[in-house]
Design brief:
Elements: E1 3-4, H1 28-47, H2 52-67, E2 70-73, E3 76-79, H3 82-85, H4 88-94, E4 100-103, H5 106-109, E5 122-126, H6 129-140, E6 148-152, E7 157-161, H7 164-188
Parallel strand pairs: 1-3, 2-5, 4-5
Antiparallel strand pairs: 2-3, 6-7
Length: 189
Amino acid sequence: MPVSIVTLVGGLQECSLAARVPGTAETPEQTYSAAAQWKHEEIGLASLGAPDEFIEKLATVYWFTVEFGLCKEGNEVKAYGAGLLSSFGELQYCLTDKPKLLPFEPEKTCQQKYPITEFQPVYFVAESFEDAKEKVRKFASIIPRPFSVRYNAYTQRIEVLDNTQQLKNLADNISGEMSVLCTALRKME
């Protein structure tokens, strides 16, 4: 299955090339938002309070997604990982039959060893960028810890959700946001 280089449109700070995340809108602001959410909310927050063995697993999932992630878009496989997008040589290498392409399954991906000084012998391919994010969310939900966390974009703080009052406040906030969304949708009809 050929790998195509992702359309260049701007935004990612971690790589020297900026790229559109497959399956997302094509503005730089939306690209950065999708990438930042992936890195910080999906993986970074999952690490807070996690036992050491899960930190290592999350780091490996990070390596094979944020750094060296591939996903399908239509009939093509596209690169979205910053490590791939910043290395023309590794992008070319991805196009060969040398590396092994495996389905992205975080429970298996987290066990894969990887070299840090040479091209990857194995890459994991998600069905889509959204599929990869959802699988990471599900994987993060099995991490044993006595609390949950979320990033509050309004306060720009991480909130620890460990009591019923915090959960009620969160539910009220979500309810208010849903009301705004429903009103906007009705006005578009």
